[in-house]
DNA sequence: TAGATTGTTAATCGATTAACAATC
DNA sequence: TAGATTGTTAATCGATTAACAATC
């Protein structure tokens, strides 16, 4: 799976879509799928799918299609999901709570093993099988649990501080829902998930385009 | 503000980022900002910012920069936020609850005026100032309130059904958090917000790149 | 074999970056 | 005026689409 050129972000974002749909196909007992059919299901052109996959190797059979379970396994390895990343969530408001119970995370192999908050009404509660820990003990839990990925759902005002603490505790990647740019050392991956962009896009298209459709 | 060519989605996604930062600048009492400085704050190149803005007009002053409040107002009109869209949320689990209380939505001018669920333990509760209505009354509320945008945070299994009902009630745009492709008539805008893609990307980069950084 | 579908190469399209003239 | 910064045009870069030979 050694690729020469850097893979574009657009490709990386489509891989989980392929993977999730392949899981559904597997559940439905379908063994083989063509790029044509898969594309129909996902609203992606078959050419795009084939191009994406060949970034990593040749997983299909000409004249046949792709073996679902085999392709699944390949994508798991490409994304790196076989190792069941451990995840910690800081800020157990409703959003953090929702994420702690988000089934799709589990299905992708992510294990939430640390929940952190400052609110004493929340600390000690069992959320999706994990007890909420005071955020002052976050470092300790991250290290003892071996948590590698942190999710930040705290208020924006404290997000940077929480990120600093995560980095100090040895977290390697951060997914932040705080609407601001976090500064972290170069070797840490930070992705921001911005819940308000979707609504803004809808506003734009409703305002400016006579009509249209997108997925 | 009539533009000749279709504006790319990439531009549309950056506009809300500009807007939010301009609001912060305004709060801080800063009157003028250059593309250089704004770019620094957002991690976007100044050329990119200027290029994006000139899709819609010439809002800056050469040799000076952009007047913050003026540019704010222009972007509001470009995105179409001046009209204070009314939003309804179907599925008041923790995610729906979180969105109903999400401050940034309000700051962007979105007004949540309808909350819908099937669970009798949730129906009747006051969430962020709005009382949760039985989803069977959704159509009625959407029409009486004049709700134009729907957010779907229900389980995936019922998302399509909810979308159908929203469309039937006259909703124009839908933001869906359900991890599946919704089918709707051509004149309805649907955007999917996929919470698990961020984690998958982090997994990919942690697995495949020696080190790196992204915002 | 004949039909189907991949993987790959080439062509197109679009977005970002660079450069600079215009002008405040 | 001199310095700064925009808006615009040109150059580059990258991603998607199209076409088709390879082959199951």
Automatic annotation (TrEMBL), chains A, B:
GO terms for molecular function: DNA binding; DNA-binding transcription factor activity. Keywords: Cytoplasm, DNA-binding, NAD, Repressor, Transcription, Transcription regulation. GO terms for cellular component: cytoplasm. It is found in: Cytoplasm. Residues 17-56 bind DNA. NAD(+) binds at residues 91-96. Modulates transcription in response to changes in cellular NADH/NAD(+) redox state. Belongs to the transcriptional regulatory Rex family. Homodimer. HAMAP family: Rex. This is Redox-sensing transcriptional repressor Rex.
């Amino acid at each position: 799976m050694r690729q020469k050129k850097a893979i574009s972000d657009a490709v990386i974002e489509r891989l989980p879509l392929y993977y999730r749909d392949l899981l559904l196909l597997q559940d439905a007992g379908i063994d083989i799928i063509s790029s044509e059919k898969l594309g129909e299901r996902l609203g992606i052109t078959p050419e795009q799918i084939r191009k994406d996959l060949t970034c990593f190797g040749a997983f299909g059979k000409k004249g046949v299609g792709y073996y679902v379970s085999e392709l699944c396994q390949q994508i798991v390895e490409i994304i790196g999901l076989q190792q069941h990343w451990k995840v910690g969530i800081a800020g157990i408001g409703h959003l953090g709570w929702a994420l702690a119970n988000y089934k799709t995370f589990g299905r992708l192999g992510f294990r939430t093993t640390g929940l952190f908050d400052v609110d004493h009404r929340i600390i000690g509660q069992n959320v999706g099988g994990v007890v909420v820990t005071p955020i002052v003990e976050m470092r300790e839990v991250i290290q003892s649990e071996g948590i590698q990925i942190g999710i930040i759902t705290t208020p924006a005002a404290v997000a940077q501080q929480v990120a600093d603490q995560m980095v100090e505790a040895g977290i390697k990647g951060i997914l932040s829902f705080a609407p601001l740019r976090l500064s972290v050392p170069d070797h840490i991956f930070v992705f921001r998930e911005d819940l308000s962009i979707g609504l803004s896009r809808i506003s734009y298209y409703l305002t400016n385009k006579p009509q249209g459709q997108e997925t």
